[in-house]
Amino acid sequence: MAGGEGGSDDLDVLLTLPDELRGAFKDPLGPIHTDANRLRTDLGEPVIAVGDVVTRHLTATGVRPDLAILDWVTEREALPESEKPDITGYGERIDVENPAAGLSAALLRALGPGIERGEKTVIVVDGEEDLATVPVLAVAPDGASVVYGQPGEGMVHVPVDSETRTYARELLAKMDGDDEAVQDALGGF
Predict the structure, then answer these.
(1) What EC identifiers does the entry list (predicted)?
(2) CA distances (Å), 148 to each of 36, 157, 177, in order?
(3) Binding site, residues?
(4) Torsion-angle region of residue 90: left (phi > 0), alpha (psi -120 to 50) or beta?
(5) Bridge partner list, 74
(6) Average pLDDT of the chain?
(7) Are the C-beta atoms of 137 and 146 separated by less than 8 Å?
(8) What is the C-alpha to C-alpha distance for residues 168 and 14, in angstroms, rounded to an integer?
(9) Residue ranges of the binding site for GTP
(10) How far is Cα 139 from Cα 135, in angstroms, rounded to an integer?
(11) Beta pairing class for 47-50 and 145-150
(12) Which of 151, 149, 137, 131 is nearest to 85 (CA)?
């Protein structure tokens, strides 16, 4: 695992998304943007991008996210090489495994340090990164901008504040799994 910390519990799935909570993830958590150049003027610090297409659009406007979380897939289809975001120029690359509709210990442990590292970091997920938005919102600092893709609509920009963090932590608590292990993996709340 390049740049990551290995361990037998890395593949442990700490949370899974129950069917009754899937609807909570359909509505965007912030305004939807279709123009990355306009979005760029609204971004705070640090910028955290969840998703390949979002990262590619931000990078094309000259914004290299402080943390980018990618899985080389969009809308359940593998991205052709020509559509993958450029990950050169990141100071650290962390490779993790994460299942669909779940959050693994490895992914959660990579998020906090990825945000706090002080150098541009990319997390490359073998599996699915879609749910990473929620724990990122739970630990990102005030003033951060989290940007993720809303399939078929555009890029959702979520400015982080205490209200956003509380909402994200409540969503995590509603998921099936070990809340205490999640908090430990994220470095505590």
Answers:
(1) 2.7.1.237
(2) 12, 7, 24
(3) 52-54, 71, 129
(4) beta
(5) 77
(6) 90
(7) yes
(8) 16
(9) 52-54, 71, 129
(10) 6
(11) parallel
(12) 149
